[in-house]
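anyone seen this seq b4? input:
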Amino acid sequence: MELVTIYREIRHMKVKYITAIAIATILGLVTTNTSYANFQAATNLNSTTVSSKVAQSNPCAGKANPCAGKANPCAGKANPCAGKSSTTTLHPQFYTENGVALDGQDVVAYFTQSKLVMGVSQFKHNWGGTTWMFASAANRDMFANNPEKYAPQYGGYCAQGTSEGNLVVTQPDAWKIVNGKLYLNYDKTVQAQWMGDIPGHIASANKNWPAILNNKELLR
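predicted toks r here
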């Protein structure tokens, strides 16, 4: 009798185990190799099965919503993250030396005087996360009214370097305006390379910018 009783208990446990495996498989708890299509179909089936089971056993079914008619405690409150950019880069958007944009040259003078003119601390303007310096109040105001027009391309980093996927500093005397846009280069020698195929280098640089702001190294 004892052997018979033990056998019956073992058989009962086996049945319970097989039943548990079957339920787990239906609910998606058993890991199997399957195609994406089969995975989608199984997910839909599991969702329906689970929803049905939950509905049957939900102790709150048919009861009134205790929050119905109550005001949303967050309604009308300003989003604390509204207007803030979540994008950050390893290097600043504009090449900056000693706390000022570029090397402190007046970028407006490139357009209005066609030459390099250094700015002075008396005439400065904060824009783009850095301080820009100018040779006169007039140039400062021109920049403030339309900074995108005068700011150099690729944040003032080397145009040739950008075309090659590198983040490189620039010299204020290696400059050129092309189609109304200011481009700077590492030095006159590198600028000569860039001028060998300006359209091609600009096209390549446009593809690399601004992703290179996350380059590990700023080349000097």
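The longest strand covers residues 120-127. Strands lie at 96-97, 100-101, 120-127, 130-134, 175-178, 181-184. kinda curious what u guys think
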